[in-house]
User: Fold this.
Amino acid sequence: SAALLSGCSKTDGVDAPVPPASEKITITASTESRSMASNVRTSLAASDEVLWSMDDTFVVYDMDSYNSSTFEIKSGAGTTSGVFTGYKPQGTSYIALYGDNSYGGGILTLPAEQTYDASGFAPYMNPMAAVTSDLESGLSFKNLMGILELNVTGTKTVESVTVSCDGVMLSGTVSVSPTTLDIVSYGTPSNSVSLVGINEALDPATARKFNVVVPPGTYENLKIRIANTDGTSVLRTAAEPVVVERNQIVPVMGLVDGED
Assistant:
């Protein structure tokens, strides 16, 4: 899903549907608006909508057997409420996952590289989940991650930004708790994530915003490396711990590009 962010579309990387055990059904699925972290950037709007995109899909798992079925968007692209169709899995309780399902089995991948999208974040970089015992009544998806909004000034042209933090998972494979919607590392996590394909010129007076989707957590000694198209780079370290909550946008202010 996308929008603040635009970009929930993807043509691969989702689980192949199990042959239908029952009828084809229609589900109305809504997204959750993000909130700005308290006590910062109060001049901004209080929330940012996450919109469905054309070609969006999500996977519904029966929580008893983890049989799955892929649901495809039929209408509602560009809005917070989309209509999806797919075959209903057997079972009585379900979890729906939106994101990179290429690992399979209800496991989501948080990629080590996120492709830059000026409108907010790239397709399938904002994982979401919904839990229900009645699919036909609709799904209310919740955002599983937070967003670091990096505000950068300077005179360079930025090529990529890498965020890292010792001892904290920033990319890798995760499972999702159906009761709390917490994400749990599955496999070997990585303590870094990169935003690539930026190629945006900076302004010395007006900050350009780069959004990096990150797991909730407290980031001690958060490091941000800004790499430029001319081969130079600069490493900045946050002066204080950065706390990111689920569904929250956390601005990181005062990042000045240059050379180490």
